[in-house]
Write a structure and sequence with these properties.
The complex is a heterodimer of chains A (354) and B (365). The longest helix of chain A has 21 residues, at 207-227. Chain A has an eight-stranded parallel beta sheet with strand order 1-2-3-4-5-6-7-8. Chain A is α/β, with parallel strands linked by helices and 354 residues long. Chain A is 39% helix and 12% strand. In chain B, helix 5 (150-160) runs parallel beside helix 6 (185-193). In chain B, 39% of the residues lie in helices and 11% in strands. The longest helix of chain B is centred in the middle third of the chain and has 21 residues, at 219-239. Classes of the chains: A alpha/beta (354), B alpha/beta (365). Chains A and B meet through helix 7, helix 9 and helix 11 of A and helix 7, helix 9 and helix 11 of B.
Chain lengths: 354, 365
């Protein structure tokens, strides 16, 4: 059965095509443009799957020119008009965090944000965007957050699930501080800056494994944020995990709560079971949908999550997570969909407005 | 578990059935215990330069040596190092029929020097036989192998294949490469040929960060990361086609818990649908291989706020794939009398507490 999305639905994870260096050059300062030209910089690799591969882009959503997701007209038509979605939170997963030269990363982050604002946000008022930050240098990231936050069309901060250090580390404090000050949730999106292998046993062989292992970096970030007490210091902070499923979260919370009981000696500032902290502060997007093969399994996963406030509707456009035109996984009830697509996004993203 | 412990006698009464525990840690009272089993040159080298590893495991435990504080045979002694004490505290009162020994600490498996690695592994194998399994019929040893030298490991497995003291091959989750990689296949070939399950215990310090997000700060995070290591490892076994090549190989996941397994299987099946062009060497869906080839040990068992959630996880996985483990004498020991949900029923309880292990390890009660 096809469910219509409720009125006011928000798609919380929509990918813009990753811009090329040529796309960004107009937004780079002259000195950096010259560096790009003199050094022949073509790009910085990929944060995950090659964006135009079938793994990342549904074949029928590949533009004529090979651009994943196609043009702005294609995106607005498919993501907003056809699905009757009223708002979409978009981002360009440019591999800023892969750059080892921190000032260069800061220049490219600013260029990406300006490019997204002028090239995409200006196309349709229903599009909101994510601030890409040079997390390599958290003070520079904080400056970029302040700069972009002045434009209220930016509704969240975006970082990769795997960066230089686990994000609970005190060096990241300026980012969390600015995020809370501007009421900007921080999305940790599946993808890696390439500093660490995707498993504790090194690099997997197959793309299939990379897709399965995406969830592992998210788990590590939650453990880090909670252990370091980031949510104690910033009680209004919200973190959104995206592109890595959600069915793994209940068992992760159970494990961490259990171990916390035995290891409180090293984290005495943690006063409640981590699973409770996570329920309050962490949100997860719906796609890729990993909660079982049947609707009864999905019902149980929701029960195990212990909260109906955590899931945010997302299509992950143009990723290939479903065929046909209905982005809603089967088994979701009308009231559940209303929560995931309308109420939860608005409760998470205060800048969306109604 | 959270409840206050009862006295051991009461626990034994309550269990009333024999237990097979698939993860118990015997300890060396001192390194000198393996000296008689090592070539003199290797022993001297170890004394002169110390063990060689890749480092990175510097997360102080929450209690000394991660041991149960009541498990030291006498003040200052190493927990798990005295068989007589182990009998009194653990084997007898818990009605243990068999215990699978998993020696950890410095066991040679991750030693850098290839000759020293073999010497220590073999000394530890001999030590298990002489000091433990030959002294108590309830104890079964693990064949320790130099993990990063798979060809040599296969020869070591071969060498112990006819010694009934040994019940399995032991590996660690954190290795130089994901364990499904073809270079490790000689280990699986030898294990399958001789009917040994391959048990894989959490830990190992291969030099990689213990999480894909980098080096964490706290032991709490490291503890939590073990199940992630299990997940990446299992994805590797499936993706590389290990179970296609070795269809009767049994993999046992030790000390990673198990509540993450259903979501891992769902995630893998979905990724498999998307990556079929890359995964043409697989004839079945990932979850089908895992149902045939993967077994999980219970400890440290997950403790949801609602116990029925644990029951639902057990139903999803299937009772036949789950085996009890205690982790004695470590601090996060699970008690067989209280570890399983009350509503599980006696038939399923017996399968987890002994029946499944009898089948996997071909042990008779």
């Amino acid at each position: 059965m096809r469910l219509n999305l409720p009125e006011g639905a928000v798609d919380c994870n929509v990918h813009l095509p990753v811009p090329t260096v040529e796309d960004l050059c107009p937004y780079l300062p002259e000195a950096w443009r010259e560096i790009v030209r003199l050094r022949g910089i073509k790009g910085f690799g990929h944060i995950g799957a090659k964006p135009d591969s079938p793994a990342a882009c549904r074949p029928d959503w590949l533009g004529e020119d090979g651009v994943p997701g196609g043009t702005a007209v294609d995106l607005v038509s498919r993501v907003l008009d056809q699905r009757k979605v009223s708002r979409a939170i978009v981002h360009a997963l440019y591999p800023v965090q892969r750059i080892h030269d921190a000032p260069m990363a800061a220049a490219f982050a600013a260029a990406v944000n300006d490019y997204v604002a002028s090239h995409w946000l200006s196309c349709d008022t229903r599009l909101s965007a994510s601030i890409v930050v040079p997390a390599q240098d958290p003070r520079a990231a904080a400056i970029e957050i302040d700069r972009c936050a002045a434009d209220t069309r930016f509704v969240q901060i975006l970082m990769l699930a795997s960066g230089d250090l686990p994000y609970g580390h005190p060096i990241y404090r300026p980012i969390w501080e600015r995020a809370e000050a501007h009421s900007l949730p921080v999305m940790l999106h599946a993808g890696s800056a390439g500093r660490y292998p995707p498993t504790p046993s090194g690099w997997p062989t197959y793309h299939f494994e990379l897709a399965v292992d995406d969830a592992l970096a998210g788990q590590a970030q939650l453990a880090s944020l909670v252990s370091h007490g980031v949510f104690n210091t910033f009680p209004e902070l919200r973190v959104v995990l995206s592109g890595m499923g959600f069915a793994w979260l209940p068992s992760f919370g159970w494990r961490m709560s259990k171990f916390w009981r035995g290891t409180r000696i090293e984290v005495p500032w943690i006063r409640e079971p981590p699973a409770e902290t996570i329920r309050r502060h962490v949100r997860l997007t719906l796609r890729p949908f990993d909660a079982g093969a049947t609707s009864s399994e999905f019902e149980r996963v929701l029960d195990h999550l212990g909260s109906d406030e955590m899931l945010l509707f997302s299509s992950d456009y143009p990723s290939w997570h479903f065929d046909g035109s209905d982005p809603v996984p089967p088994g979701i009830s009308v009231p559940q969909l209303a929560r995931m697509a309308v109420e939860n996004p608005h409760a998470t993203y205060s800048r969306l407005g109604r | 578990m959270l409840d206050m412990p009862e006295t051991r006698d009461a626990v034994a009464d309550k269990i009333g059935e024999p237990i097979i525990d698939v993860d118990v840690h015997p300890g060396l009272a001192s390194a000198d215990e393996i000296r008689p089993y090592m070539p003199r040159r290797m022993w001297e080298l170890l004394g002169e330069l110390g063990p060689g590893g890749r480092g990175g495991g510097e997360y102080p435990k929450a209690v000394p040596e991660a041991h149960r504080q009541d498990a030291a045979p006498a003040p200052g002694q190493v927990a798990g190092s005295d068989l007589e004490f182990m009998r009194r505290q653990y084997l007898d009162p818990l009605n243990i029929r068999y215990s699978l020994l998993s020696p950890l600490r410095y066991s040679g498996q991750t030693e850098n020097n290839p000759d020293l690695a073999v010497a220590v592994c073999q000394a530890m194998n001999e030590w298990q036989r002489v000091r433990w399994t030959s002294q108590d019929q309830r104890l079964k040893a693990s064949i320790l192998v130099p993990i990063e030298q798979p060809e040599v490991a296969a020869q070591i497995i071969e060498g112990w294949a006819d010694t009934p003291d040994f019940a399995q091959v032991l590996l660690l989750t954190r290795t130089a490469d994901p364990l499904g990689r073809r270079r490790y296949w000689p280990i699986y070939e030898a294990a399958e040929r001789h009917g040994f399950p391959v048990a894989i215990h959490v830990f190992g310090s291969p030099g990689h960060a213990p999480t894909p997000a980098g080096w964490p700060s706290y032991y709490l995070e490291e503890m939590t990361s073990h199940s992630a290591a299990c997940q990446g490892m299992i994805a590797s076994f499936v993706a590389e086609g290990v179970f296609e090549r070795f269809p009767t190989l049994k993999i046992v996941s030790l000390e990673g818990g198990f509540a993450w397994l259903p979501s891992l299987e769902w995630r893998m099946d979905r990724a498999f649908d998307r990556f079929r062009s890359e995964m043409r060497h697989l004839k079945m869906r990932p979850s089908e291989y895992l149902r045939r080839n993967l077994f999980v040990a219970t400890q440290p068992i997950e403790e949801p706020e609602r116990r029925r959630h644990l029951m639902e996880i057990i139903e999803w996985i299937g009772v036949e794939r789950i085996m009890f483990s205690s982790d004695y004498p470590h601090w996060d020991f699970d008690d067989p009398a209280r570890v399983l949900p009350g509503r599980i029923g006696s038939e399923a309880r017996t399968k987890i507490l002994s029946g499944n292990a009898m089948r996997v390890y071909r042990l008779g009660l």
